[in-house]
Write a structure and sequence with these properties.
alpha/beta; DNA-binding
DNA sequence: GCCGTTTTCGGCCCGACTGTTTTCAGTCG
């Protein structure tokens, strides 16, 4: 039987949705596929389990029809609607509508009139002037498509949040300095702390809108102005990143921030609720439909209050349960950066790090931490000079010396072990017993089957000295797919053995992802946050881990390194065993 | 295709900007 995880099934649903849209299907029909895909990605139970127990309709947006189709997919590997639609349209059309400026309608024309079915086809057709004279494709449109193909190629991979957030902060600062600006912030997926972002949305409340638009047109690194109106300016930077700056009146600021923070799914659900109350929500405010009187909009709190609910933190706004919680007044109090008392994963010059333990300690003091764990690579990772027992002894002496100064964060003697093909690790018990904290992770075997890879992890968790499994899936955003694991089994074993799972906060890992975190929370698995720093300034990456944790509905109580040093020690396996 | 405090049918969110269209469709967020 084929094995699918939730994202894999969601991808199929999205493909069908895109192709249905291109084929001209009813809007609500193709939207329902995307809606179900979105819900499935965030759903805390495994699709295979749901299918086996005939509980697929418990996923919001999955009804009888989609449940039956998903059953067919997991049983036979084929999705009936996908088979039907690809008989008429090639699935490469899905990439065609990824080109900025090219939507489903134009894609359909290109395919039917010229046989263009991919971005490569489009480029060839433009070069051969085959679009000239085609209805709806004037010279300006063709010019935009050429730029769109370029942007697609350069930027088809969404940018890492860490590469965009500092830049967005600078834009916001520049907007704040303009005369007439009352407030400014970035919105969109960046504000929701998605792990990658496609563009930057900046909202400015100002009494001098033209000054804001002028500033937006002349932003540093602006390479091309995509749109320049009275309320919205879009530019593309030299790095291929699109920045949209919108200006609104101060009394509209909260509504605009809410609206452009999204997500689209969150807003759709919100507006449906508004409608039921005789209200309308748009980027200018909340209005009574009956007399078009504006009743809220200056702040986001007002907007949500007008709809009878508390304000969900931006990280939760994905329409995956936050609206019900906001209405019921049961929103979680999410983890905050200030809750973090220490960083539990970092490397030093002893292996492949660039900073010394002392430099990491200095940075940790700046961040106000009570403790950090020095977790260099263990012996079997020879490539990066993994530490033998002699080297460990030297590192421990150094740590003892630093701790004896009594003036900074406490350094825990840690290690990042390698889980080998059998689930065994670098050192025997006599060595493992001497650490304060032990992490273990996969560093090889990316192509292994789910069964083999899962067995390695489960066996490692049974080791009484292994406190934490770090970067569970081994994924590297935009470079390496996650290893295929039976997440449900991993979570169950983690809960059973008291093994914590790390949320690796290095920007291109952010592993666990938000869906894993929700599963972990539900299973009662404890989480640790570590930056996996290889250089002292990278200890600052903790903010990205916290953002991801918040997306996963994680609260401070579920995170071990929100505890005091003694509290943390008591929760590690060696602390619990005695 | 989904769903229910307007329930088993008939809804399903809303506006700015652009280009080509001479009155509006397509795209985007």
């Amino acid at each position: 039987m084929p094995d699918f995880d939730n994202p894999a099934v969601a991808d199929v649903l999205d493909t069908v949705g895109d192709l249905l849209e291109i084929s001209g299907a009813d809007k609500f029909r193709f939207l329902s596929y995307h809606k179900a895909a979105h819900a499935l990605r965030a759903f805390p139970e495994d699709v295979m389990t749901l299918a086996a127990e005939e509980r697929l309709t418990e996923v919001p947006g999955v009804g009888k029809k989609l449940a039956a189709s998903i059953m067919a997919l997991v049983d036979s590997g084929t999705f009936p609607e996908l088979e039907a639609i690809t008989a008429e349209l090639p699935d490469t059309l899905v990439e065609l509508v990824q080109v900025p400026g090219l939507g489903p309608k134009k894609a359909k024309v290109l395919y039917e009139e010229l046989g263009v079915a991919s971005v490569d086809d489009l480029e060839t057709a433009i070069a051969a002037h085959r679009l000239d004279g085609l209805g709806g494709f004037g010279p300006k449109t063709i010019e935009n498509l050429v730029a769109g193909i370029d942007a697609f190629r350069r930027h088809r991979q969404r940018a890492l949040i860490a590469d965009v957030l500092p830049f967005a902060d600078r834009i916001v600062s520049a907007m704040r300095e303009l005369g007439g600006t009352v407030d400014a912030a970035f919105a969109g997926s960046l504000r929701r702390r998605r792990e990658t972002v496609g563009d930057v949305d900046v909202i400015v409340a100002s009494t001098e809108p033209e000054a804001v638009m002028q500033a937006a047109r002349t932003l540093p690194r602006a390479e091309r102005i995509v749109a320049g109106g009275e309320t919205k300016t879009s530019i593309v930077t030299t790095g291929g990143l699109q920045v949209d700056v919108r200006v609104v009146a101060p009394e509209q600021y909260g509504a605009a921030l809410q609206y452009f923070t999204g997500s689209a799914e969150h807003n759709v659900a919100l507006r449906a609720i508004a409608k039921g109350m005789g209200l309308k929500v748009n980027e200018y405010g909340v209005f009574r439909i009956a007399d078009d009187v504006r009743i809220a909009g200056a702040t986001e709190d007002d907007v949500y209050a007008a709809l009878g609910m508390a304000m969900p933190p931006p990280e939760l706004r994905e329409n995956t349960g936050e609206i019900a919680a906001a209405l019921a007044g049961t929103l979680p109090r999410l983890l905050e950066l200030s809750d973090i008392r220490g960083d539990l994963h970092m490397h030093t010059v002893a292996t492949d790090g660039k900073s010394t333990a002392e430099q990491n300690r200095t940075k940790a003091a700046e961040l106000g931490y009570d403790y950090i764990a020095i977790t260099d690579h263990a012996a079997n990772l020879r490539m990066v000079g993994g530490l033998g027992v002699d080297a460990l002894e030297r590192q421990w002496e150094l740590i003892d010396e630093l701790n004896s100064r009594g003036d900074g964060p406490y350094l825990l003697k840690g290690i990042e072990l390698n889980i080998d093909d059998n689930g065994d690790v670098d050192y025997d018990s006599s060595v493992l017993a001497r650490f304060d904290i032990v992490l273990a992770s996969l560093h090889s075997g990316w192509g292994q089957s789910r069964d083999v890879a899962t067995r390695r992890v489960l066996r490692a968790m049974e080791n009484p000295f292994i406190d934490v499994i770090s970067h569970l899936t081994g994924r590297v955003l935009r470079r390496r797919d996650p290893i295929d694991l039976d997440i449900e089994a991993v979570m169950a074993k983690a809960a059973e053995t008291g093994t914590a799972l790390e949320l690796n906060s290095y920007p291109d890992r952010l592993d666990l992802d938000d869906a894993h975190l929700r599963i972990a929370k539900r299973a009662g698995v404890r989480i640790t946050l570590g930056t996996d720093s290889h250089e002292a300034t990278q200890l600052g990456y903790m903010t990205y881990g916290v953002g991801q944790a918040r997306r996963g509905w994680i609260e401070a109580a579920g995170v071990l390194n929100t505890l005091s040093l003694d509290g943390l020690r008591a929760q590690l396996k060696r602390g619990r065993a005695v």
